[in-house]
Specification:
- This protein starts with a helix and ends in a 21-residue tail after the last helix.
- α1 packs antiparallel against α3.
- The protein has one domain.
- It is mainly alpha-helical.
- Strands 1-2 form a two-stranded antiparallel sheet. It has a two-stranded parallel ribbon with strand order 3-4.
- The protein is built from 5 helices and 4 strands.
- Helix content is 40%, strand content 10%.
């Protein structure tokens, strides 16, 4: 009953309340990032959601679009702006995903939505991470995030799928807040700090 009805209700109310409460901060970040990123404060990217359905994730744009002499984008970590670095450090770049929750593409808690090109590389067990709604934070995020291998991350995701409950969600949310305050590994980027997932075992 929780995962079918109450979880969605809690997500919607919490996301709406969150947007209202932090709107002043959100507005300031939009203005600052808009100026530093040539009028583009937001970052949009296709991600795989529940049942593998694709949706557009919304984040604050923490990197500029600077390119080298050949017109290729500079390495991601070299393009993180000063304001963007602060946003990433305190997970402020995740704020726009509250809109994804209101729309119904995401939940507060669940496996992080990853790139669609990864879909063909999952084995049958790993693909089960798509049985639930993806989240802003999840069991893998509070257990090492990018400090662990892809295989370990997916094991944590499947653990969440098998044990989803209100109490587990409360625990994940509380530990997420704790790690953000501590500026622990919870704040690393999903795509900037991790190698691409190819389906091969990580050494």
């Amino acid at each position: 009953m929780y995962s079918i009805f109450f979880k969605r209700l809690i997500d919607f109310v919490a996301a709406l309340a969150g947007i209202i409460l932090i709107f002043p901060i959100f507005l300031v970040l939009i203005i600052i990032l808009g100026i530093s990123n040539n009028g583009k404060p937001f970052f949009y990217q296709l991600r795989a959601g529940k049942n593998g359905k694709l949706f557009t994730i919304i984040k604050l744009k923490t990197m500029n679009d600077k390119r080298d002499a050949n017109g290729e984008l500079l390495p991601a970590l070299e393009r993180v702006t000063k304001t963007g670095n602060i946003c990433r450090k305190y997970s402020l770049d995740e704020i726009p995903q509250l809109l994804n929750i209101l729309i119904g593409d995401m939940s507060l808690i669940g496996p992080r939505p990853l790139l669609p090109e990864y879909l063909e590389h999952y084995n049958e067990e790993q693909h089960r991470r798509h049985e639930v709604m993806p989240g802003i934070t999840g069991w893998a995020q509070i257990n090492g995030r990018n400090a662990i291998t892809w295989e370990q991350k997916f094991e944590y995701d499947i653990y969440y799928v098998n044990n989803q409950s209100f109490l587990l969600d409360v625990k994940i949310l509380w530990l997420t807040i704790y790690k953000v305050i501590k500026k622990s590994d919870i704040n690393s980027s999903d795509t900037v700090d991790m190698p691409m997932f190819t389906g091969k075992t990580t050494k």
